From TrEMBL:
<keyword id="KW-0489">Methyltransferase</keyword>
<dbReference type="InterPro" id="IPR000940">
    <property type="entry name" value="NNMT_TEMT_trans"/>
</dbReference>
<keyword id="KW-0949">S-adenosyl-L-methionine</keyword>
<dbReference type="Pfam" id="PF01234">
    <property type="entry name" value="NNMT_PNMT_TEMT"/>
</dbReference>
<keyword id="KW-0808">Transferase</keyword>
<comment type="similarity">
    <text>Belongs to the class I-like SAM-binding methyltransferase superfamily. NNMT/PNMT/TEMT family.</text>
</comment>
<dbReference type="GO" id="GO:0032259">
    <property type="term" value="P:methylation"/>
</dbReference>
<dbReference type="GO" id="GO:0005829">
    <property type="term" value="C:cytosol"/>
</dbReference>
<protein>
    <submittedName>
        <fullName>Indolethylamine N-methyltransferase</fullName>
    </submittedName>
</protein>
<dbReference type="GO" id="GO:0008170">
    <property type="term" value="F:N-methyltransferase activity"/>
</dbReference>
<dbReference type="InterPro" id="IPR053384">
    <property type="entry name" value="SAM-dep_methyltransferase"/>
</dbReference>
<dbReference type="InterPro" id="IPR029063">
    <property type="entry name" value="SAM-dependent_MTases_sf"/>
</dbReference>
């Protein structure tokens, strides 16, 4: 049900959610990495804001957890803080091109994207520890990532066979608004994510409240539905999550703001 005063918008100017083929065509990992690099030069924008949210979130997570990053993209952002608590990490994405970027970095390929400035930011600036820990953290992440697999939040199950199991922690950043065409689909997708979280386990979900109906990086424009605050929050309680912790931050565009929720899957 829509909330009173709801201003959700689904008819974006670009048409519906993209098929895997369209996604592969439009979402170029190299362009996305340039977009991330540009944002990194600004203190409060994405991806520093996401890194700060991951850092805060993982401080509250117990040691030895099994972590799934659902919709990782070509980026290693979540793993830097996840490695402080994880016993193993699984990375999953919709696009083969993104998975190839992740594998390249994990295999220590000299052509791989250099994530060291992001590791330095988290380990030195946010955690306040030194150079040696930073090198160690990169090694630790390479050891902890057990697999890089395909996922599609609109399918049942939403992840490759063998990975459709319960994780202590699931993180999902900037995925659901682009992968859903309506409020109902967003709710169904949040419910599919919930099925991957152990009862008592935690979900970290980062998104953008976006009245534009699309997002832009480089010269790409991709669809992105807009859910009002109540409908967005309602999707997580409807999916069986409780104890929501929310963080909202402005972007330079008044139509868009970052929003982050962490919540616990109910045990009964
Ligand atoms: C904007 S990127 C976000 C990447 C990364 N999580 C981050 O925070 O930078 C959106 C990601 O959603 C993934 N995605 C798009 N449709 C999806 C779907 N139906 N199921 C799962 N992931 C999807 C894409 O492959 C892409 O990596």
């Amino acid at each position: 049900m829509a909330a009173t005063g709801c201003d959700c918008r689904f008819k974006d100017p670009l048409g519906a959610r993209l098929s895997p083929e369209q996604y592969q065509e439009l979402f170029k990992p190299s362009e996305y990495l340039k977009f991330i690099e540009a944002g990194f030069s600004s203190q409060n924008a994405f991806p520093r804001h996401t890194l700060q949210c991951y850092h805060e979130f993982f401080k509250s997570v117990p040691n030895g957890v099994k972590v799934l990053d659902f919709g990782t993209g070509p980026v290693m952002l979540s793993t830097i803080s996840a490695a402080t608590k994880a016993s193993e990490i699984v990375l999953a994405d919709y696009s083969e091109a993104n998975l190839a970027y992740l594998r390249q970095w994990l295999q220590n390929d000299p052509q791989a994207y250099d994530w060291s400035p992001y590791f330095r930011y988290v380990v030195q600036e946010l955690e306040g520890v030194g150079d040696r820990e930073m090198d160690e953290r990169e090694k630790q992440v390479r050891q902890l990532v057990k697999d890089v697999v395909h996922c599609d939040i609109t399918q049942d199950p939403p992840i490759d066979k063998g990975y459709d199991q319960l994780y202590d922690v699931v993180v999902c950043s900037l995925v659901l608004e682009g992968a859903s065409d309506s409020r109902e689909e967003y709710r169904a997708n949040a419910a599919r994510l919930a099925k991957l979280v152990k009862p008592g386990g935690a979900l970290f979900c980062y998104g953008i409240e976006n009245k534009n109906g699309y997002y832009v990086f480089g010269n790409q424009r991709l669809p992105n539905i807009h859910l009002c605050h109540e409908c967005w929050l309602g999707a997580f309680s409807n999916a069986g999550f409780c104890d929501p912790k929310i963080r909202i931050a402005p972007t330079c565009d008044p139509n868009r703001q970052y929003r982050f929720i962490s919540c616990t899957r109910k045990t009964v």
